[in-house]
Specification:
Elements: H1 10-36, H2 67-94, H3 102-128
Helix pairs in contact: 2-3
Length: 135
């Protein structure tokens, strides 16, 4: 016999409470074990040194970076975000179950091509300005 729609008895939710108890127990035990076997409680002079990407820290921490470093980072983000727009566009337009009508597919195709042409134009301008040349 199926349970009532609003049956809030413990027998109905027993597996959920059992799972929740196991998760909380695992979290508490792992926190206690990590505290007990933590090697970080012992301080040494090497552990107190600042960490600089695997290299010994030499010189001033406020050294200037070349602006090309930031240009490359920004261009990476631009072309990375471009992929975030292309995947949903392609799936919604040409996926296994397209969500648009065939007449709208033509319009969306050309809108996508304009988007890609704009990105190509930006890439060409950046290339002509020498952004990708690392000296």
């Amino acid at each position: 016999m199926p349970p009532e729609p609003f049956d809030f008895s413990l027998t109905t939710y027993y597996p959920i409470f059992l799972f929740l108890g196991a998760v909380i127990g695992f979290a508490v035990v792992s926190l206690l074990l990590s505290y007990l076997i933590n090697p970080g409680r012992i301080t040494t002079s090497v552990k107190q040194m600042p960490y600089e990407s695997g290299m010994d820290p030499i010189g001033d921490a406020r050294q200037q970076f070349d602006v090309r470093f930031y240009l490359i980072a920004i261009l990476f983000l631009v072309f990375d975000v471009e992929l975030l727009f292309l995947y949903p566009w392609a799936v919604a337009t040409y996926g296994e179950y397209p969500v648009v009508t065939p007449s709208l597919q033509t319009v969306l195709f050309w809108e996508g091509m304009i988007f890609l042409a704009t990105l190509l134009l930006a890439w060409i301008v950046a290339w002509r300005k020498g952004v990708f040349r690392w000296r």
